[in-house]
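Support case: user asked for a sample of complex input and structure output to validate their parser. Sending the pair below.
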Amino acid sequence: MVNTLPGTGPRAVVPPGDDPDSPRGRLAEQRGTPGLTGTLAKIILLGAVDALAVFALFVLFMQESWLVFAIAALVTLIVNYIYLKPGALPAKYLAPGVFFLVIFQIFVVLYSGYIAFTNYGDGHNSTKEDAVSAIISTSQFRVPDSPTFQLTVLERLGEYSFLVTDPDGDVSVGGAERPLEDASNAQTDSTGKAVGLEGYTTLAFADLLANQSEIGALSVPLSDDPNSGALRTPDGSRAYLYASTLQYDEADDSFTNSETGELYRDLGDGAFAASDGAELVPGWKINVGFDNFARAFGEEDIRGPLLGVTLWTFAFAILSVASTFVLGLFLAIVFNDARMKGRKFYRIAIILPYAFPPFLSALVWLGLFNQDFGYINQVLLGGADVPWLTDPWLAKASVLIVNLWLGFPYMFLICTGALQSIPEELTEAATVDGARPWAVFRLIKFPLLLVSVAPLLISSFAFNFNNFNIVYMLTGGGPRNIEAGVDAGATDLLITLVYKVAFGSGTGRDYGLASAFAILIFIIVGLIAAYGFKRTRALEDLN
Amino acid sequence: MTTTIAPRVDPPVPGATNAPRPAAARRRRGFGRWFGATGWRHAVGLTMVVFAAFPLLYVLSASLNPTGTLVGSNALFRSIDFSNYVELFNRPQQPYAAWFLNTMVIGTVSAIGTVFLGALAAYAFSRMRFSGRRIGLLSLLLVQMFPQLLGVVAIFLLLSAISDVFPAIGLGTQAGLILVYLGGALGVNTYLMYGFFNTIPMSIDEAAKIDGASHAQIFFGIILRLVSPILAVVGLLSFVGSTSEFVIASVVLSDPSTQTLAVGLYQFVSQETSTNWTLFAAGAVLAAIPVMALFLYLQKYIVSGLTAGAVK
């Protein structure tokens, strides 16, 4: 409820547990009646939101995604309720931000948690039905001596269809998901080849060329039975019958290779597998329980690198915070002297690295550190051949140096602020009592400063714990540990490891394992944050 | 760190004192005294200026170097030539102009959105008392510990699911990327703003209310103006944050013409560091200019904004 007593600070007067229905609260809300502009703006905005919501609901309804439909409908109702109900002011102000926060931050975290328990990734990214049809269509080959169909490619609503004339002159039409059906009403040319059909656009040669790959990938089933084969075209003017070497038996839920007779069964691992362990690709997504965690902590070639990466992540975060803080504090002290001239100039020059976009900084240092041509080796070290970014330990040092360069201005700024907010009287009093400068600093100023910057140091730690840009852009996590079962290197942080496992080019995408690593980061950061905030006074300010 | 913070103190530390001395000694030891008092501070300052500014001067020099290669860039400011800047805009494979524009649009829109959402929430937390307020603030404090990029896999999959319903905000679209960035709008920003909102006296709200202003009029007409310094800071920090963001942008945007500078320039330079170097340098200089100009222009606010949040 709005605090209505005049002349008070925001924290005073009404205690947090104030009864929302108190007479005073009500009075306050009724007094301010919104003007016409406000009401109009509200109606228009809410109307726009509702229109979008109705459209989304419609699409979801058509796609029969019932769970998402229900959630979207519920959210729409809540939003309308909040903005149409008189009062409930805090909700009106909080709803927009919370909406995005819930979807793109909180839901995303929970969803990561779910993915960590699946085998989601390359080769396992869809349902079993999709996997079955994908296996059938990828194992197709042209049936020997099969008839040639005259083909015209049609287009309707962005989808392609095959209009085919078989050797007997019968015309039929079909598409990717639509088996061939009779189309005897098609227009034909003088040779009897069907060239157009009502309701469809015939593709001209230029369109064929422009969409070659899409048309080449199109496979039109001959009938409802997927094992009966499909029509495909290599050139856009003739189609041939293709059949799969793998025959799917729906009742038995298995594939049989028609050439070798090998039987592939669903053994519960999210793929069809033969008795010798060979799997058909693609598989499909299943829940695998704690398998990803078991892999992360159980398999020797993942556990070792993971432990190394975790330790280095801690070392990197701690050393980064420590080095930037020490340098920043030192500079804050050095420049915190009113007698010194040109302090403004130094200050601006020193915060330049902070103003330079961080991703560019890492890339600039990438050039400076280059082993063969970089400025540091070539000019500063007179043609030395120091492997700054390719030796495991030097790469670690380089990353820390660059992060020091990036981070010390921030620490300088907050330490300056903190130092200046310490009352001068304290120093004077201590001096009068005979304390020396070092003692004044160590026993009075430093503790006071630490109290006020501790929350920022914790935030800084959490930030550096996940400082993706600097590591990924400078070293890419490398030099790579070639014995590792995952793409982990000497400077990899946990977060870069997550990225490389999930989206890396070399080893294939493994969303499940990457999410398991991400959950590990969540737990570590959460524990540190909880501990850190308990120890500092950050929370006491909240009331 | 053994320094003399309190200059008025202490004869015992040699040289760092203001205590009266015999006139002759003062003249003779003029330089020593100056050095002891502030001179060494200048020495430290100059060293740090070199450390801080050198990489920036280096990249500026490289961008003006026509040789094109990394090794040729080691001769600082040997020649001044703008051909790299021209070349930058004539590469169809690396559409720098598009990257630049994309970055500015994404950065600006998400900065404005972030400021708006954050200010709404901070207003509620600062001016209203409601059940769940303390929990809400605490949750925000906790949420900011978990950056969005941790959920990059889930974001990728979420956006590809959204593509089926709303292709306009799905995978591969900048609108989708902006929405993702807005998910991080609360969190640290609200907290920063909340502290600043609390410094605006409540009596201003009360006076306006007595004059018949509605809560929306108070917020948009009065409060937002009074807190404009913190809005500038949050806007700038969010602009810098979203223009520098690499992970999510690289996953969401795949078509080169839709990418941002962070993604584009990274691929540009990571593939062939030494041959593309001066072009990259020119691109980096152009990309950095708007951010640095804003930063230095708002410097005063940023310093007070950073310290207002935690350092009281």
